[in-house]
């Protein structure tokens, strides 16, 4: 399985390391050609405005949308959730509120019950984290914190407001890889590349 990690800005190395630990081959994505042949794509945390501008300047906007439209999974974390939302790449029928829990000084960790990864809580690291402000009827909430959705899934898109790559718990990445395996079995060869 070949997973791309958007490597424009942010914590892409930690995602790559976690995915390799789960048995995936990983490719850093910086230009459209890097998306060819990918089974899934991770859009990591960082600074959402910088990531969006980097995607645009690298000519990645339409290739990422084509990857999504072909049914290939995308996993957006923290700023990546914002990048995936309806106001940016439009991969999710949802909008995320930037810095919803506060600025850097209000960063925190919390144990979350996340649907689909088992009964044991997931330790979530929130750093200048968003939350989902609005979501369409097809967006499934997998976890909430303080009444706000912080992990969601819609079709081939998984998004969370926190940084799962900053802990030793790989269950959210494993969920993404399971989504990718299912999609790989159903997506025609060459679609979206």
Largest sheet data = 7 strands, mixed
What is the rounded Rg? 15 Å
Number of strands: 11
Question: Termini distance?
Answer: 16 Å
Number of helical segments with 4 or more residues: 5
Report the principal-axis shape: globular
* Sequence stretches where pLDDT stays below 50 over 5 or more residues: none
Instruction: Kindly estimate the percentage of residues that lie in beta strands according to DSSP.
Output: 25-35%
Main structural class: alpha/beta
Provide the helix percentage.
25-40%
Question: How much is the average pLDDT?
Answer: 93
Provide key terms for this protein:
193 residues; alpha/beta
Describe how the helices and strands are arranged.
Layout: E1 2-6, H1 12-21, E2 25-29, E3 40-43, H2 48-57, H3 61-69, E4 74-77, H4 79-84, E5 94-97, E6 108-112, E7 122-126, E8 131-135, E9 140-145, E10 148-154, E11 157-160, H5 171-186
Parallel strand pairs: 1-2, 1-3, 3-4, 4-11
Antiparallel strand pairs: 5-8, 6-7, 9-10, 10-11
């Amino acid at each position: 399985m070949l997973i791309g990690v958007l490597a424009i800005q942010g914590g892409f190395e930690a995602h790559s390391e976690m995915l390799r630990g789960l048995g995936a081959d990983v490719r850093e994505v910086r230009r459209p050609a890097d998306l060819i042949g990918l089974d899934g794509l991770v859009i990591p945390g960082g600074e959402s405005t910088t990531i969006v501008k980097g995607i645009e300047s690298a000519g990645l906007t339409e290739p990422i949308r084509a990857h999504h439209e072909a049914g290939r999974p995308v996993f957006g974390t923290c700023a990546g959730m914002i990048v995936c939302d309806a106001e940016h790449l439009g991969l999710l029928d949802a909008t995320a509120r930037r810095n919803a829990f506060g600025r850097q000084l209000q960063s925190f960790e919390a144990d979350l019950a996340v649907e689909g990864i088992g009964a044991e809580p997931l330790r979530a690291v929130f750093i200048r984290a968003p939350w989902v402000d609005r979501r369409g009827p097809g967006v499934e909430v997998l976890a909430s914190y303080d009444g706000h959705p912080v992990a969601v899934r819609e079709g081939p898109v998984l998004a969370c407001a926190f940084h799962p790559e900053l802990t030793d718990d790989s269950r959210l990445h494993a969920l993404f890889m399971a989504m990718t395996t299912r999609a790989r079995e159903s997506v025609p060869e060459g679609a979206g590349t």
